[in-house]
Write a sequence for this structure.
């Protein structure tokens, strides 16, 4: 008998468990993007190579437990049945396949706010995207929302929160923002940096320095800080004087790439100024909360991703390039391939095109690739 | 464009793994060298059918799109094709033919004897298509005074075609070696695009 395993259970294994994965997608999909984690071991055998039998792959698998994954579920079920017949004890297939894994959000509590309320990180582990929910006195603000907004809606319902603000730190190129759609649904205000919104087809509230956002009665302050570089509008946010939501400007192990709007050369000096001057003048005790993680090793034991700003100024190589020319070289020549369909994603986030749900899903496939390479 | 094939397999509405499972079953029933057309709506079938063909040694010819439907073309591998030595004595190498093409000789004809689906996706510009199986019935369409360069994928079908031609009184015939599998010169396809 084969059994389903949910994306949620996979997340638990990735954060603190063990798992042996047989990935039956084709080789290029596997090489591009797969389930990773400290205790995760995986091998790839396309299902179409196993149509005549699984004997060949059996010797590479543990006898006790194997999790079979594919793109959508169908092929993993077929291969799982074959493995079960060959006597492997516990054979699981990933429910909904890599599609479901890519869409799962793990909520992780980051900490409490000074006058009550708290801050949560929603980790989209499968894609490396991080979003945030700040709550106080029954009100919530969501920052850099993923396309799948059910996770935030369910969380708000369970905790009796009214979603008042949806905020994007910049116009995203790696994923479709859920900010506008959830704002419409909940009558919340949708905030976007105006310099990233010049071509948008909808109305929004301008996210600018000085326009502090308050939630709850205890005046939790969300202070926007203009930090261009990844995009021309990129805006960081300081929450409650404790947390620095750095968007795609600063990550734990890397820094943002400036080229996804086709302006790498122009934006390099903005990026440098944001990191080396603006961030450098902030309190080094701020906890940096980026919009992405790059490597699974950045996750802590609860599945969260964060670091003290002071520590990053010591350890993050992107913050330690003294020479300006070298910095320019590092961020313009060290670029990984661009995210899948990034132009279409930007146009969707501007409201210029309206792809169907399935098309949006297809566009988001693969890793986020918003950082420069190591 | 419609391409002549030996079998059409409808996998529309089926999800992974079914398009590939059905394709494999259908290919098992085909004779070596026959061509199948697979209709599928699962977008993932494109990468998977290419991977499957590569790993099984079958020949993936190409894919057309018609609205939401992907139309894949595959040719069942003939295990002899790569091994069998060619017998026809007059041959010309790919690179020599490529140079000869540049001279724009009006007396030269390129005869492509592969299946229509192979020809549709990639051929030498201006090549005439007569699949090997049809050649004996279509000899009258060819001009005996012209130099006929016969090409296929790896030089075997064209070898046989060249022998048929000489047996029927054609004197200026050359077999192109190794053929389209390693052709690096200009090509065209049914969409009209040159690569």
């Amino acid at each position: 008998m084969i059994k389903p395993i949910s994306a949620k259970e996979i997340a638990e294994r990735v954060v603190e468990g063990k798992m042996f994965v047989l990935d039956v997608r084709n080789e290029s999909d596997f090489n591009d993007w797969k389930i990773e984690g400290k205790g995760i071991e995986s091998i790839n055998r396309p299902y179409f190579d196993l149509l005549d039998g699984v004997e060949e792959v059996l010797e590479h698998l543990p006898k006790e437990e194997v999790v079979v994954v594919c793109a959508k579920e169908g092929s993993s079920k077929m291969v799982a049945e074959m493995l079960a017949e060959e006597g492997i004890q516990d054979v699981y297939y990933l429910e909904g396949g890599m599609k479901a894994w890519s869409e799962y959000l793990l909520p992780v509590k980051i900490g409490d706010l000074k006058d009550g309320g708290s801050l949560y990180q929603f980790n989209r582990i499968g894609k490396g995207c991080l979003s945030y929910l700040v709550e106080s006195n029954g009100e919530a603000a969501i920052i850099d929302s993923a396309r799948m907004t059910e996770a935030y809606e369910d969380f708000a319902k369970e905790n009796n929160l009214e979603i008042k603000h949806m905020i994007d730190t910049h116009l995203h190129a790696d994923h479709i923002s859920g900010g506008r759609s959830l704002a419409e649904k909940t009558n919340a205000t949708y905030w976007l940096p105006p310099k990233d919104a010049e071509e948008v087809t909808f109305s929004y509230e301008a996210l600018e320095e000085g326009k502090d956002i308050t939630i709850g009665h205890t005046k939790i302050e969300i202070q926007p800080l203009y930090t261009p570089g990844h995009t021309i509008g990129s805006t960081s946010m300081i929450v409650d004087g404790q947390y620095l939501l750095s968007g795609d400007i600063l990550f734990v192990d890397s820094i943002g790439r400036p080229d996804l709007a086709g302006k790498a050369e122009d934006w390099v000096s903005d990026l440098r100024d944001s990191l080396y001057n603006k961030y450098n003048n902030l309190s080094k005790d701020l906890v940096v909360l980026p919009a992405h993680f790059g490597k699974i090793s950045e996750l802590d034991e609860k599945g969260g991703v964060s670091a003290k700003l002071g520590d990053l100024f010591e350890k993050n190589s992107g913050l330690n390039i003294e020479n300006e020319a070298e910095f320019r070289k590092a961020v313009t020549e060290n670029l990984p391939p661009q995210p899948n369909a990034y132009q279409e994603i930007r146009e969707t986030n501007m409201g210029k095109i309206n792809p169907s749900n399935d098309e949006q899903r297809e566009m988001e496939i693969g890793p986020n690739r918003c950082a420069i390479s190591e | 464009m419609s391409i002549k094939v030996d079998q059409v397999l409808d996998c529309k509405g089926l999800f992974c793994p079914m398009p590939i499972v059905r394709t494999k079953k259908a290919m098992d029933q085909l004779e070596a060298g026959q061509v199948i057309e697979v209709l599928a709506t699962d977008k993932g079938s494109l990468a998977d059918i290419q991977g499957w063909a590569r790993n099984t040694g079958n020949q993936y010819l190409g894919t057309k799109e018609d609205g939401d439907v992907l139309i894949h073309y595959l040719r069942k591998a003939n295990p002899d094709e790569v091994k069998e030595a060619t017998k026809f004595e007059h041959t010309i190498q790919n690179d020599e033919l490529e140079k000869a093409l540049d001279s724009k000789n009006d007396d030269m004809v390129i005869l492509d004897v592969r299946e229509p689906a192979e020809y549709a996706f990639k051929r030498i510009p201006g090549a005439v298509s007569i699949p090997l199986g049809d050649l004996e019935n279509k000899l009258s369409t060819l001009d005996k005074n012209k130099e006929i360069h016969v090409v296929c994928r790896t030089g075997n079908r064209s070898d046989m075609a060249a022998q048929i031609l000489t047996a029927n009184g054609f004197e200026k015939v050359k077999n192109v070696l190794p053929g389209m599998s390693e052709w690096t010169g200009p090509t065209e396809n049914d969409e009209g695009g040159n690569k």
Notes: The interface with chain A takes residues 15-18, 20-21, 24, 43-44, 47-48, 51-52, 55 of chain B (CB under 8 Å).
